[in-house]
Amino acid sequence: xxxxxxxxxxxxxxxxxxxxxxxxxxxxxxxxxxxxxxxxxxxxxxxxxxxxxxxxxxxxxxxxxxxxxxxxxxxxxxxxxxxxxxxxxxxxxxxxxxxxxxxxxxxxxxxxxxxxxxxxxxxxxxxxxxxxxxxxxxxxxxxxxxxxxxxxxxxxxxxxxxxxxxxxxxxxxxxxxxxxxxxxxxxxxxxxxxxxxxxxxxxxxxxxxxxxxxxxxxxxxxxxxxxxxxxxxxxxxxxxxxxxxxxxxxxxxxxxxxxxxxxxxxxxxxxxxxxxxxxxxxxxxxxxxxxxxxxxxxxxxxxxxxxxxxxxxxxxxxxxxxxxxxxxxxx
Length: 331
What we know:
alpha/beta; Rossmann fold
């Protein structure tokens, strides 16, 4: 079986790349080649998918069983993919986002039938538009699309709401005993999924004939409050967390860039029903608990100080928000 991954070396996709190779797939990775990660056994096509006039020529002589675009974010990206892969692949998998689901939710259980609607986050609205365009291509011309929606999936990133992801800022604050912000009262529910667990479900969809024209989310079944998530991170770091609870709306007033991240995503309790992925991929089960998986992430970060990106702007903004909120509370 022959697959093309556009991207393929990122936080989520690297685990899928490694699993596909382990399972004997003939895997091609198309990317700019700027990441330090090398994927042994894969064929590498070095190109910038956003700006490469010769891209079509590079792919012209290939036919694919599966194409996955890990880095498509806009309808323009999708139009490019449609032009490149019409008649060239048996399956095209689009990586959407679980943040595309209805915000706020009208029902706490999220299924693939949950409406797609997010008035808070342009990123999510763009993903929805991509999904709509691809499903139109499926209905009108039989373009063989499968849509996958990850939700806060981690391997090389810190999966918390503020000061994390590609940043090490929240961990640095913990180590220095500084206050960290947990949005709301910390009791809303969330799910965090390790990339290796995600890969097991995702790989089961690759070249699956019943996945064509379908959408799936793939998550762990673990449920935690945000208080528990930050506590487990602090336990892995080896320090007690100095938590300040601040309403999401207050945070977004001071830092509007967090509106999508919080009001459009993490401020709401989310419980994913994974029946659909388990139906097509029997035996799929997330087996890496967060309290263990995050220790692996921190160990990976410890291997290279350059990976520990502490963003001064985030650090200062968190101090500013905390001071303003504590002054308000003191009135």
